[in-house]
Amino acid sequence: MFQPTGPHLFLPTASSTAEPLRAAASVVFNLPGYQVLSACDLPLGGRRVTAVANSTEAACPDCGVISARVHQRTRQKVKDLGVGGKDIELIVIKPRFLCIELACSRRTFTQVTSQLPFRARCTARLKAAAVEAVLDEGMPIWAACARHRLGWATINAAIIADTVTIPDPDQVPVRALGIDEHRFARAKWFKHPETAQWCRVEPWMSTFVNAATGHILGVVDGRSSANITRWLRARSQAWLEGLEVVAIDPSSAFRNAVAQVLPAVEISVDHWHVVRLGNQMLTEVRQRVTREVLGRRGRKQDSVWAHRMLLLRAGDRLTDAGLHRLEQVLEDEDFEQVAAAWAVKERLRAMLAAQDIPAAQNARIDFEMAVAAADMAETDKLATTVATWWTEIKVFVRTHVTNARTESVNTGIKHIKRTGRGFRNQRNYQSRILGTSIRQTRRRRRIPHQQGLHAQR
Ligand SMILES: [Zn+2]
Q1: Which DSSP category does 295 fall into?
Q2: Which among 438, 439, 435, 430 has a CA at the least distance from the CA of 185?
Q3: Cβ 203 vs Cβ 252: under 8 Å
Q4: What's the pLDDT score for residue 317?
Q5: Is the Cβ–Cβ distance between 251 and 218 less than 8 Å?
Q6: Which of 11, 222, 297, 309 yields a CA-CA distance of 20 to 30 A from 122?
Q7: Residue 97: phi, psi to the nearest 5?
Q8: Backbone angles phi, psi at 421, to 5 degrees
Protein backbone atom coordinates (compact mmCIF):
# COMPACT_ATOMS: atom_id res chain seq x y z
CA MET A 1 0.00 0.00 0.00
CA PHE A 2 1.32 3.38 -0.94
CA GLN A 3 0.63 5.69 1.99
CA PRO A 4 2.31 9.05 1.59
CA THR A 5 3.44 10.40 4.93
CA GLY A 6 5.10 13.60 3.75
CA PRO A 7 3.58 16.66 2.16
CA HIS A 8 1.94 16.09 -1.23
CA LEU A 9 3.99 16.48 -4.35
CA PHE A 10 6.03 19.57 -3.79
CA LEU A 11 8.69 20.36 -6.31
CA PRO A 12 11.04 23.18 -5.41
CA THR A 13 10.74 26.35 -7.43
CA ALA A 14 13.15 29.25 -7.83
CA SER A 15 11.28 31.21 -5.18
CA SER A 16 11.63 28.46 -2.56
CA THR A 17 15.44 28.10 -2.57
CA ALA A 18 15.74 29.38 0.98
CA GLU A 19 14.77 26.37 3.07
CA PRO A 20 13.47 27.71 6.37
CA LEU A 21 12.72 24.45 8.17
CA ARG A 22 13.09 20.90 6.99
CA ALA A 23 10.01 18.75 7.33
CA ALA A 24 10.19 16.13 10.10
CA ALA A 25 10.66 13.22 7.69
CA SER A 26 13.57 14.99 5.97
CA VAL A 27 15.25 15.69 9.30
CA VAL A 28 15.01 12.02 10.28
CA PHE A 29 16.12 10.73 6.89
CA ASN A 30 18.94 13.31 6.73
CA LEU A 31 20.07 13.03 3.12
CA PRO A 32 21.80 16.33 2.34
CA GLY A 33 20.43 18.11 -0.73
CA TYR A 34 17.20 16.12 -0.70
CA GLN A 35 13.88 16.31 1.10
CA VAL A 36 11.58 13.40 1.73
CA LEU A 37 8.51 13.52 -0.41
CA SER A 38 6.79 10.35 0.73
CA ALA A 39 7.45 7.13 2.62
CA CYS A 40 5.44 3.94 2.68
CA ASP A 41 5.64 0.38 3.95
CA LEU A 42 6.10 -2.25 1.28
CA PRO A 43 3.93 -5.37 1.33
CA LEU A 44 6.93 -7.74 1.59
CA GLY A 45 8.68 -5.76 4.34
CA GLY A 46 11.02 -2.81 4.00
CA ARG A 47 10.06 0.74 3.15
CA ARG A 48 10.04 2.88 0.08
CA VAL A 49 11.23 6.45 0.54
CA THR A 50 10.91 8.97 -2.23
CA ALA A 51 13.15 12.01 -1.94
CA VAL A 52 13.36 15.01 -4.19
CA ALA A 53 16.40 17.18 -4.83
CA ASN A 54 16.33 20.68 -3.35
CA SER A 55 18.36 22.41 -6.01
CA THR A 56 16.76 24.76 -8.45
CA GLU A 57 19.97 25.49 -10.35
CA ALA A 58 23.34 23.86 -10.84
CA ALA A 59 26.63 24.46 -12.63
CA CYS A 60 27.40 22.50 -15.81
CA PRO A 61 30.28 20.09 -15.08
CA ASP A 62 31.93 20.94 -18.43
CA CYS A 63 31.66 24.72 -18.78
CA GLY A 64 30.70 25.77 -15.25
CA VAL A 65 27.83 28.01 -16.36
CA ILE A 66 24.96 27.94 -13.88
CA SER A 67 21.63 26.92 -15.33
CA ALA A 68 18.13 26.91 -13.86
CA ARG A 69 16.42 25.51 -16.97
CA VAL A 70 15.00 22.11 -16.11
CA HIS A 71 14.96 19.72 -19.03
CA GLN A 72 13.18 16.92 -17.19
CA ARG A 73 12.99 15.30 -13.77
CA THR A 74 14.54 11.84 -13.54
CA ARG A 75 13.43 9.14 -11.14
CA GLN A 76 16.17 6.79 -10.04
CA LYS A 77 16.35 3.92 -7.61
CA VAL A 78 19.46 4.00 -5.42
CA LYS A 79 20.63 1.92 -2.47
CA ASP A 80 20.81 3.47 0.97
CA LEU A 81 21.32 2.58 4.61
CA GLY A 82 18.36 1.07 6.42
CA VAL A 83 16.44 3.31 8.84
CA GLY A 84 14.79 2.16 12.06
CA GLY A 85 15.86 -1.45 11.59
CA LYS A 86 14.28 -1.76 8.15
CA ASP A 87 15.75 -1.90 4.67
CA ILE A 88 15.08 1.13 2.53
CA GLU A 89 14.22 1.31 -1.12
CA LEU A 90 15.16 4.85 -2.00
CA ILE A 91 13.78 6.64 -5.05
CA VAL A 92 15.37 9.98 -5.82
CA ILE A 93 13.84 12.54 -8.10
CA LYS A 94 16.33 15.03 -9.40
CA PRO A 95 16.25 17.66 -12.09
CA ARG A 96 18.15 17.28 -15.34
CA PHE A 97 19.23 20.77 -16.34
CA LEU A 98 19.85 22.12 -19.84
CA CYS A 99 23.21 23.77 -20.33
CA ILE A 100 22.45 27.30 -21.50
CA GLU A 101 25.97 27.98 -22.79
CA LEU A 102 25.76 27.75 -26.56
CA ALA A 103 29.46 27.04 -27.01
CA CYS A 104 29.30 24.06 -24.63
CA SER A 105 29.10 20.61 -26.15
CA ARG A 106 27.16 19.17 -23.20
CA ARG A 107 23.42 19.46 -23.58
CA THR A 108 22.10 18.30 -20.21
CA PHE A 109 23.40 17.38 -16.76
CA THR A 110 21.98 16.35 -13.39
CA GLN A 111 22.59 17.59 -9.92
CA VAL A 112 25.33 15.96 -7.86
CA THR A 113 25.54 16.00 -4.05
CA SER A 114 28.09 14.71 -1.57
CA GLN A 115 25.91 11.68 -0.83
CA LEU A 116 24.97 10.99 -4.45
CA PRO A 117 27.92 11.83 -6.69
CA PHE A 118 27.96 11.52 -10.48
CA ARG A 119 26.40 8.25 -11.67
CA ALA A 120 26.15 6.90 -8.12
CA ARG A 121 23.87 3.89 -7.67
CA CYS A 122 24.20 3.92 -3.89
CA THR A 123 24.65 6.66 -1.31
CA ALA A 124 28.09 7.56 0.02
CA ARG A 125 26.95 6.80 3.57
CA LEU A 126 26.04 3.23 2.62
CA LYS A 127 29.50 2.69 1.13
CA ALA A 128 31.10 4.27 4.20
CA ALA A 129 29.18 1.89 6.47
CA ALA A 130 30.37 -1.10 4.41
CA VAL A 131 34.00 0.11 4.50
CA GLU A 132 33.70 0.63 8.25
CA ALA A 133 32.36 -2.90 8.73
CA VAL A 134 35.34 -4.37 6.86
CA LEU A 135 38.17 -2.15 8.08
CA ASP A 136 37.06 -1.35 11.63
CA GLU A 137 35.07 -4.40 12.64
CA GLY A 138 37.21 -6.85 10.65
CA MET A 139 34.18 -8.29 8.85
CA PRO A 140 34.91 -10.25 5.68
CA ILE A 141 33.68 -8.51 2.52
CA TRP A 142 31.13 -11.23 1.74
CA ALA A 143 29.43 -10.60 5.10
CA ALA A 144 29.40 -6.85 4.51
CA CYS A 145 27.82 -7.55 1.08
CA ALA A 146 24.95 -9.39 2.75
CA ARG A 147 24.46 -6.81 5.45
CA HIS A 148 24.43 -3.79 3.15
CA ARG A 149 23.05 -5.39 -0.03
CA LEU A 150 26.05 -4.32 -2.08
CA GLY A 151 28.25 -6.22 -4.51
CA TRP A 152 31.72 -7.51 -3.65
CA ALA A 153 33.38 -5.34 -6.30
CA THR A 154 31.58 -2.20 -5.06
CA ILE A 155 32.82 -2.66 -1.49
CA ASN A 156 36.32 -3.61 -2.58
CA ALA A 157 36.52 -0.54 -4.83
CA ALA A 158 35.29 1.63 -1.94
CA ILE A 159 38.02 0.20 0.31
CA ILE A 160 40.69 0.89 -2.30
CA ALA A 161 39.29 4.42 -2.77
CA ASP A 162 39.43 4.88 1.01
CA THR A 163 43.11 3.90 0.92
CA VAL A 164 43.77 6.87 -1.36
CA THR A 165 43.01 9.20 1.58
CA ILE A 166 45.94 7.71 3.53
CA PRO A 167 48.53 10.41 4.17
CA ASP A 168 51.72 10.20 2.15
CA PRO A 169 54.37 8.65 4.46
CA ASP A 170 56.58 11.66 3.73
CA GLN A 171 54.00 13.87 5.44
CA VAL A 172 54.11 11.84 8.69
CA PRO A 173 57.15 12.86 10.71
CA VAL A 174 58.72 9.74 12.20
CA ARG A 175 61.60 9.63 14.66
CA ALA A 176 61.51 5.89 15.40
CA LEU A 177 60.78 3.52 12.53
CA GLY A 178 60.01 -0.18 12.92
CA ILE A 179 60.69 -2.66 10.10
CA ASP A 180 59.22 -6.12 10.35
CA GLU A 181 58.48 -9.06 8.09
CA HIS A 182 55.57 -11.45 7.78
CA ARG A 183 54.56 -14.18 5.38
CA PHE A 184 51.47 -13.15 3.44
CA ALA A 185 50.43 -16.51 2.02
CA ARG A 186 51.38 -20.16 2.10
CA ALA A 187 54.64 -21.11 0.38
CA LYS A 188 53.99 -22.07 -3.25
CA TRP A 189 55.81 -24.17 -5.82
CA PHE A 190 56.23 -22.96 -9.39
CA LYS A 191 57.69 -24.72 -12.39
CA HIS A 192 60.22 -22.42 -13.99
CA PRO A 193 59.11 -21.91 -17.62
CA GLU A 194 62.64 -22.19 -19.08
CA THR A 195 64.55 -24.59 -16.88
CA ALA A 196 61.43 -26.66 -16.02
CA GLN A 197 62.67 -26.88 -12.44
CA TRP A 198 60.38 -26.56 -9.46
CA CYS A 199 61.10 -23.53 -7.29
CA ARG A 200 59.70 -22.68 -3.92
CA VAL A 201 58.30 -19.18 -3.52
CA GLU A 202 57.63 -17.78 -0.08
CA PRO A 203 55.37 -14.75 -0.36
CA TRP A 204 56.86 -12.45 2.26
CA MET A 205 55.94 -8.85 2.92
CA SER A 206 57.75 -6.25 4.97
CA THR A 207 55.94 -3.53 6.87
CA PHE A 208 57.23 -0.09 7.84
CA VAL A 209 55.66 1.16 11.04
CA ASN A 210 55.88 4.33 13.07
CA ALA A 211 57.27 2.66 16.20
CA ALA A 212 55.73 5.29 18.47
CA THR A 213 52.14 5.05 17.22
CA GLY A 214 51.87 1.70 15.42
CA HIS A 215 50.71 3.38 12.20
CA ILE A 216 51.74 1.34 9.15
CA LEU A 217 53.49 3.67 6.72
CA GLY A 218 54.10 1.20 3.94
CA VAL A 219 54.04 -2.42 2.87
CA VAL A 220 56.50 -3.89 0.35
CA ASP A 221 56.83 -7.31 -1.23
CA GLY A 222 59.60 -9.59 -0.07
CA ARG A 223 62.01 -9.20 2.79
CA SER A 224 65.26 -8.76 0.93
CA SER A 225 67.62 -5.88 1.44
CA ALA A 226 66.81 -4.53 -2.07
CA ASN A 227 63.09 -4.17 -1.35
CA ILE A 228 63.76 -2.33 1.91
CA THR A 229 66.25 0.10 0.36
CA ARG A 230 63.87 0.81 -2.53
CA TRP A 231 61.12 1.94 -0.13
CA LEU A 232 63.52 3.99 1.98
CA ARG A 233 65.05 5.66 -1.09
CA ALA A 234 61.58 6.71 -2.25
CA ARG A 235 61.15 8.89 0.86
CA SER A 236 61.92 12.58 0.89
CA GLN A 237 65.23 13.90 2.19
CA ALA A 238 63.44 15.76 5.02
CA TRP A 239 61.68 12.60 6.16
CA LEU A 240 64.91 10.57 6.17
CA GLU A 241 66.70 13.31 8.10
CA GLY A 242 63.97 13.25 10.77
CA LEU A 243 64.67 9.59 11.54
CA GLU A 244 66.67 8.87 14.66
CA VAL A 245 66.29 5.17 15.38
CA VAL A 246 65.19 2.17 13.33
CA ALA A 247 64.01 -0.90 15.23
CA ILE A 248 64.43 -4.21 13.38
CA ASP A 249 64.32 -7.94 13.97
CA PRO A 250 67.77 -9.55 14.18
CA SER A 251 67.91 -9.86 10.39
CA SER A 252 71.11 -8.96 8.59
CA ALA A 253 69.17 -8.12 5.40
CA PHE A 254 67.33 -5.37 7.27
CA ARG A 255 70.49 -4.17 8.97
CA ASN A 256 72.39 -3.92 5.67
CA ALA A 257 69.50 -2.08 4.01
CA VAL A 258 69.20 0.50 6.77
CA ALA A 259 72.97 1.00 7.03
CA GLN A 260 73.16 1.52 3.25
CA VAL A 261 70.47 4.21 2.99
CA LEU A 262 70.76 5.76 6.45
CA PRO A 263 74.36 5.52 7.63
CA ALA A 264 73.76 8.11 10.39
CA VAL A 265 70.70 6.46 11.90
CA GLU A 266 71.02 4.16 14.91
CA ILE A 267 69.68 0.62 14.65
CA SER A 268 67.94 -0.93 17.63
CA VAL A 269 67.26 -4.64 17.81
CA ASP A 270 64.07 -5.73 19.40
CA HIS A 271 64.57 -7.29 22.85
CA TRP A 272 61.63 -9.69 22.42
CA HIS A 273 63.36 -11.30 19.47
CA VAL A 274 66.57 -11.73 21.42
CA VAL A 275 64.69 -13.24 24.38
CA ARG A 276 62.98 -15.58 21.91
CA LEU A 277 66.38 -16.75 20.69
CA GLY A 278 67.30 -17.47 24.33
CA ASN A 279 64.10 -19.48 24.81
CA GLN A 280 64.74 -21.41 21.59
CA MET A 281 68.21 -22.28 22.86
CA LEU A 282 66.77 -23.55 26.16
CA THR A 283 64.19 -25.69 24.36
CA GLU A 284 66.85 -27.21 22.08
CA VAL A 285 68.99 -28.11 25.11
CA ARG A 286 66.00 -29.61 26.97
CA GLN A 287 65.05 -31.76 23.97
CA ARG A 288 68.61 -32.94 23.33
CA VAL A 289 69.28 -33.77 27.00
CA THR A 290 65.94 -35.62 27.30
CA ARG A 291 66.90 -37.76 24.30
CA GLU A 292 70.36 -38.44 25.74
CA VAL A 293 69.18 -39.25 29.28
CA LEU A 294 65.91 -41.08 28.60
CA GLY A 295 66.58 -42.28 25.06
CA ARG A 296 63.20 -40.96 23.88
CA ARG A 297 61.12 -37.81 23.58
CA GLY A 298 59.70 -36.13 26.69
CA ARG A 299 56.42 -37.35 28.17
CA LYS A 300 54.06 -35.81 30.63
CA GLN A 301 55.35 -37.90 33.54
CA ASP A 302 58.85 -36.40 33.11
CA SER A 303 59.02 -33.31 35.30
CA VAL A 304 61.36 -31.54 32.87
CA TRP A 305 58.73 -31.94 30.13
CA ALA A 306 55.77 -31.15 32.37
CA HIS A 307 57.39 -27.89 33.47
CA ARG A 308 58.76 -26.94 30.05
CA MET A 309 56.68 -23.74 29.95
CA LEU A 310 57.80 -22.84 33.47
CA LEU A 311 61.40 -22.94 32.23
CA LEU A 312 60.61 -20.34 29.58
CA ARG A 313 58.79 -17.96 31.92
CA ALA A 314 60.63 -14.92 33.31
CA GLY A 315 62.50 -16.28 36.33
CA ASP A 316 62.26 -13.08 38.37
CA ARG A 317 58.49 -12.92 37.98
CA LEU A 318 57.64 -16.47 39.14
CA THR A 319 55.42 -17.04 42.16
CA ASP A 320 56.86 -18.88 45.19
CA ALA A 321 55.04 -22.05 44.16
CA GLY A 322 56.37 -21.76 40.60
CA LEU A 323 59.89 -21.16 41.88
CA HIS A 324 59.64 -24.21 44.11
CA ARG A 325 58.52 -26.44 41.22
CA LEU A 326 61.30 -25.04 39.05
CA GLU A 327 63.91 -25.80 41.73
CA GLN A 328 62.81 -29.43 41.75
CA VAL A 329 63.33 -29.63 37.97
CA LEU A 330 66.68 -27.91 37.99
CA GLU A 331 68.08 -29.85 40.96
CA ASP A 332 67.85 -33.16 39.07
CA GLU A 333 71.49 -34.12 38.41
CA ASP A 334 70.66 -35.76 35.07
CA PHE A 335 69.38 -32.43 33.79
CA GLU A 336 72.20 -30.18 34.98
CA GLN A 337 72.75 -29.01 31.40
CA VAL A 338 69.16 -27.77 31.33
CA ALA A 339 69.85 -25.87 34.55
CA ALA A 340 72.95 -24.31 32.95
CA ALA A 341 70.99 -23.30 29.87
CA TRP A 342 68.26 -21.82 32.08
CA ALA A 343 70.90 -19.73 33.88
CA VAL A 344 72.19 -18.44 30.51
CA LYS A 345 68.65 -17.51 29.46
CA GLU A 346 68.04 -15.62 32.70
CA ARG A 347 71.37 -13.72 32.37
CA LEU A 348 70.36 -12.75 28.84
CA ARG A 349 67.06 -11.36 30.13
CA ALA A 350 68.80 -9.42 32.89
CA MET A 351 71.17 -7.94 30.31
CA LEU A 352 68.28 -6.72 28.13
CA ALA A 353 66.47 -5.28 31.15
CA ALA A 354 69.50 -3.14 32.11
CA GLN A 355 68.67 0.53 32.58
CA ASP A 356 71.88 1.96 31.13
CA ILE A 357 74.97 0.94 29.16
CA PRO A 358 77.34 0.30 32.15
CA ALA A 359 74.70 -1.93 33.75
CA ALA A 360 74.23 -3.77 30.43
CA GLN A 361 78.00 -4.24 30.10
CA ASN A 362 78.23 -5.69 33.62
CA ALA A 363 75.25 -7.95 32.89
CA ARG A 364 77.00 -9.11 29.71
CA ILE A 365 80.02 -10.23 31.74
CA ASP A 366 77.67 -12.35 33.91
CA PHE A 367 76.08 -13.70 30.74
CA GLU A 368 79.45 -14.64 29.20
CA MET A 369 80.46 -16.37 32.46
CA ALA A 370 77.25 -18.39 32.44
CA VAL A 371 77.92 -19.32 28.79
CA ALA A 372 81.46 -20.41 29.62
CA ALA A 373 80.19 -22.48 32.58
CA ALA A 374 77.47 -24.12 30.46
CA ASP A 375 79.99 -25.06 27.73
CA MET A 376 77.45 -26.28 25.17
CA ALA A 377 77.11 -25.73 21.42
CA GLU A 378 73.65 -24.18 21.87
CA THR A 379 74.75 -21.59 24.43
CA ASP A 380 77.90 -20.76 22.44
CA LYS A 381 75.73 -20.07 19.40
CA LEU A 382 73.57 -17.69 21.43
CA ALA A 383 76.66 -15.86 22.69
CA THR A 384 77.86 -15.45 19.08
CA THR A 385 74.48 -13.94 18.11
CA VAL A 386 74.66 -11.53 21.04
CA ALA A 387 78.18 -10.51 20.00
CA THR A 388 77.01 -9.94 16.40
CA TRP A 389 74.17 -7.70 17.55
CA TRP A 390 75.85 -6.05 20.55
CA THR A 391 75.85 -2.52 19.03
CA GLU A 392 72.13 -2.77 18.28
CA ILE A 393 71.35 -4.21 21.73
CA LYS A 394 73.14 -1.25 23.32
CA VAL A 395 70.99 1.12 21.22
CA PHE A 396 67.93 -0.67 22.54
CA VAL A 397 69.10 -0.37 26.16
CA ARG A 398 69.66 3.37 25.66
CA THR A 399 66.53 4.27 23.66
CA HIS A 400 64.06 1.48 24.45
CA VAL A 401 62.75 1.74 20.88
CA THR A 402 61.21 -1.64 20.11
CA ASN A 403 59.15 -3.34 17.50
CA ALA A 404 56.49 -4.19 20.07
CA ARG A 405 53.86 -2.14 18.24
CA THR A 406 54.96 -3.58 14.91
CA GLU A 407 54.39 -7.04 16.37
CA SER A 408 50.86 -6.12 17.44
CA VAL A 409 50.32 -4.78 13.93
CA ASN A 410 51.41 -8.14 12.55
CA THR A 411 48.80 -9.84 14.70
CA GLY A 412 46.24 -7.50 13.15
CA ILE A 413 47.52 -8.34 9.68
CA LYS A 414 47.16 -12.06 10.38
CA HIS A 415 43.58 -11.40 11.45
CA ILE A 416 42.91 -9.58 8.17
CA LYS A 417 44.35 -12.55 6.29
CA ARG A 418 42.19 -15.00 8.23
CA THR A 419 38.92 -13.12 7.72
CA GLY A 420 39.78 -12.78 4.03
CA ARG A 421 40.40 -16.57 3.87
CA GLY A 422 43.73 -15.79 2.25
CA PHE A 423 44.35 -13.17 -0.39
CA ARG A 424 45.33 -13.85 -3.96
CA ASN A 425 45.39 -10.22 -5.00
CA GLN A 426 48.29 -8.47 -3.31
CA ARG A 427 46.89 -4.99 -4.00
CA ASN A 428 43.65 -5.79 -2.17
CA TYR A 429 45.66 -7.18 0.73
CA GLN A 430 47.90 -4.13 0.96
CA SER A 431 45.01 -1.67 0.78
CA ARG A 432 43.21 -3.59 3.51
CA ILE A 433 46.30 -3.47 5.78
CA LEU A 434 47.00 0.21 5.20
CA GLY A 435 43.32 1.16 5.48
CA THR A 436 42.82 -0.71 8.75
CA SER A 437 46.00 0.72 10.24
CA ILE A 438 45.31 4.37 9.47
CA ARG A 439 41.79 4.12 10.87
CA GLN A 440 43.10 2.51 14.07
CA THR A 441 45.75 5.20 14.44
CA ARG A 442 43.24 7.99 13.90
CA ARG A 443 40.92 6.48 16.50
CA ARG A 444 43.76 6.10 18.99
CA ARG A 445 44.90 9.65 18.39
CA ARG A 446 41.62 10.92 19.84
CA ILE A 447 42.70 9.41 23.15
CA PRO A 448 44.08 12.41 25.08
CA HIS A 449 47.37 10.95 26.33
CA GLN A 450 50.22 11.60 23.96
CA GLN A 451 52.47 8.84 22.68
CA GLY A 452 56.10 9.92 22.87
CA LEU A 453 59.01 8.78 20.79
CA HIS A 454 59.72 5.82 22.98
CA ALA A 455 57.19 3.06 22.73
CA GLN A 456 56.30 1.46 26.01
CA ARG A 457 58.19 -1.63 26.98
ZN1 LIG B 1 28.02 23.38 -20.28
Answers
A1: S
A2: 430
A3: no
A4: 78
A5: no
A6: 11
A7: -90, 155
A8: 50, 40
Q: How far is CA 129 from CA 133, 147, 160, in A?
A: 6, 10, 15
Instruction: Tell me, in angstroms, the distance from the centre of ligand 1 to residue 61's CA.
Output: 7
| CB-based contacts of 144, cutoff 8 Å, min separation 6 | 130, 133, 134, 150, 155
SS3 assignment, position 377: helix
Q: For 49-83, how does the pLDDT look when each residue is reduced to its tens digit (9 = 90+)? A: 999 998 888 888 888 888 889 988 889 999 888 87
How many angstroms separate the CA atoms of 368 and 347, rounded? Answer: 9
3-state secondary structure of 240: helix
Q: Ligand 1 mean position to 109 CA, how many Å? A: 8
User: What φ, ψ does residue 96 adopt, rounded to 5°?
Assistant: -105, 115
Distance 65 CA to ligand 1 centre (A): 6
Instruction: Quote the ligand 1 centre to 110 CA distance (angstroms).
Output: 12
Distances (CA, A) of 287 to 33, 290, 295, 381: 71, 5, 11, 16
Say yes or no to pLDDT of 7 above 50.
no
The residue type at 67 = S
In the chain, helix, strand, coil percent, each to 5?
45, 20, 35
The residues placing their C-beta within 5 Å of ligand 1, an ion, are: 60, 62-63, 99, 101, 104, 106
Residue 84 has a CB neighbour count (10 Å cut-off) of 7
How far from 149 is each of 90, 115, 348, CA to CA, in Å? 13, 17, 56
